User: Fold this.
Amino acid sequence: MKGKRILIVEDNDLSLVLLNDLLEVHGYEILKTGQGLDAIKLAQDNKPDLILMDIQLPDLSGLDVTRLLKQDDQTKCIPVIAVTAFAMLGDKAKALESGCDAYIAKPVILHDLLRMVDSFLSTFSRIGGQILLIEL
Ligand code: MN
Assistant:
């Protein structure tokens, strides 16, 4: 997946560094922010191939950010994987209702995350932006 661009939206510095390093080592180009509004601007300006979206952010929630991205013609085709600490029943449904394409619970198993990212990007390059929901 060399050259694919991933936007990481995560306000926890340690999580951000871990995700950044993991994905960079695998050849992805990384954009990152800890703020919801900044995430929208970065997505519009840079058109990442995939977004990893934390749900609890200091300004907008990741669900609201996803809703806004999915309403915007410029960004609606970018797949969004929600990464959330709320491992509660119903949160997955909330994430999917908000337009997230998939959901992964914290603590994230890095191997699972990487597999999900890889399969999203290869699916998207194969079928050109059609949404595929991946269950873990
Ligand atoms: Mn957070």
User: Anything to note?
Assistant: The longest strand covers residues 5-9. Residues 125-136 have pLDDT under 50 and may be disordered. Helices lie at 13-25, 36-46, 62-71, 91-97, 110-127.
